[in-house]
Amino acid sequence: MLIKPIPRKSLPDLVAGKLAAAILAGQFTTGAQLPPERDLIKDFEVSRSSLREALRILADAGVIEAQQGVGWFVSRPSERGLLKARALAAEIEPAHPKAARASAPAGPQRLPVAGEKPLRIPNLKKDRLGTFEFISWWEREKVRAARVLVVGAGALGNEVVKNLALMGIGNLFILDFDNVEAANLSRSILFRESDSGREKAMLAAARAKEINPEINVQYLHGDVTTAIGLGIFRRMDVIIGCLDNREARLAVNRFAYWVNKPWVDGAIQELLGLVRVFVPGQGACFECTLTEQARRDLALRYSCPLLARQNILMGKVPTTPTIASIIGAMQAQEALKLIHAMPVDAGKVVHFNGLNNYMHTTAYVPDENCESHWTYGEITEVPLRAETSTLEELLNVARADLGPEAVIELDQELILSLACSRCGTKEAALKPMSAVSFEAAHCPTCNEMRDVQMTHVITGGESFLRHSLLSVGVPPLHILRANNGVEYRFYELTGDLPETLHFRHFQETNGRQSGRAGNRVRLGRRVKLPAGNRPGPSRKRVRLRK
Fold first, then answer.
1. pTM assigned to the model
2. What is the dihedral of CA 207, 173, 338, 344, to 10 degrees?
3. DSSP of 502-516, one letter per residue?
């Protein structure tokens, strides 16, 4: 029989544990001063030396700090300090799970006070996530149930998707509007030479499922500024932006803020990169960080929207696979922390300089007048669908709630007509701005730039009220705003939910693999591509292996 010593806690350890438990329970908040030493000595019935040793233990852990000549104060919580305090408290007074939840301080800057994680010995030969069980804070079910939206499947997106799949994030939604080209292969681990011309989002989802067949994936080939419904953002736990232009970042920032969801932004160039987490209501958001010049550049979208949008989407940024790996790993790690409700530095930016391997963190200053700082109120789910429901139907729903003065606000400008001042011709358009190119805005007769008439408000007097919501640029499962000049109401096209958010791409069904409805990707078959983008006969098929 192997006999081991019975662990004994010293008086300082016991006192430190008691104080840590009191701090975690919220009896002493951040910045609060602890009682004088004489009072603590009396309360704990210990000597001055034992008390001071206990205070030193907490100070070394970063839980408290001394102010010369004043006393001891509770420090701003850090991940290391909270983990140490939690360990000290658990050793003295193991908390019941329900009591722990009740006593845990509010806000994402504090770790929950929970009971010790049950010991589970995984089968490392059969359990692909088994080693994660040895991590004290890891919660398998929470990770398996998590929903993460990755916007952008380029160099950064490849690294993020790969890491999320390896970690077993249960549900991944991948969005990108681009197709693979040869230049992507030098920094995109999920793409192959045979993938030229194929959709990045589809390939990233397929390869993520290949990396980890236990996860669920879904993809959408489209532009984040126009193609994705806000109801998808609403149902995510974390959004990760892997983008290379301000317009897309601004769209993600506003969408996430509107539905009160955190998002993780990453940016790379050559050997430089940055990571930042934005949480609504906690510090600055992305729009707060924009310089005046950046705001002027984005304002160009409104003075000449067709040209501005086209120019922005043409931008190319030189990157390396090494910086993509570093920043993509940090983004995935921040997402994992958010899923576990661990502390994150919201509203701050971590800069990494690969030239000298220097890293530093800077806090942004929130803008009190930032236009992005608007969180939608209660969202009404209506059984309407973007493809079949009309503007008139949605307006009727809004007016039943808000009265006859209610109007509908569209997120995207609707082009009504294009008029040429030179030759006097006028063309009715009725298309969302994303469907009208800069070239199309020129007169086909005299090549003069035409005046664009557009609107984003539906008042009820329009002649096109019976057009479908989809035809005017409203994506499936979107949330639209209505107001009567006094209050707003928010309506989600929940009739789109079953087909729009399902995480069922590339799942085996009766021995066959499902892809996107209407254009499926099957094992051993080529992906259907538009004319001009089809791969040559020598290119391999996209296959998934069990």
1. 0.72
2. 80
3. ---BT-EETTEE--B
Reading phi first (left if > 0) and then psi (alpha if -120 to 50, else beta), residue 431 is in beta
CATH class of 135-363: alpha beta
Residue 19 to residue 489: CA distance in whole angstroms: 48
Do residues 155 and 324 lie in contact, with contact meaning Cβ atoms separated by under 8 Å? yes
Distance from C-alpha of 515 to C-alpha of 26, rounded to nearest angstrom: 50
Report the Cα 422 to chain-centroid distance in Å.
47
Residues 6 or more apart in contact with residue 111 via CB below 8 angstroms? 77, 79, 82, 83, 86, 104, 137, 341, 342, 343
Arithmetic mean of pLDDT over the chain: 83
Q: Which of 197, 139, 203 is nearest to 167 (CA)?
A: 139
- Helix (H) or strand (E) run with residue 482 in it: strand 479-483
Residue 328 has pLDDT above 60, yes or no: yes
CA 314 centroid distance within chain: 24
Banded pLDDT at 150 (limits 50, 70, 90): very high
- Name the strand (E) or helix (H) holding 380: strand 379-382
Three-state SS at 457: strand
Domain ranges of the chain: 11-103, 135-363, 379-499
Q: Does domain 11-103 have CATH number 1.10.10.10?
A: yes
Q: For 22, left (φ over 0), alpha (ψ -120 to 50), or beta?
A: alpha
Specify whether the CB–CB gap between 364 and 289 falls below 8 A: yes
For residues 150 and 164, the answer to whether their CB atoms sit within 8 Å is: yes
pLDDT, tens digit (0-9, with 9 covering 90-100), for 245-260: 899 999 999 999 999 9
- Six-digit token pair at 236? 């995510």
**Which helix (H) or strand (E) is 174 found in, with range?**
strand 171-176
Determine the 3-state secondary structure of 416 from DSSP: strand
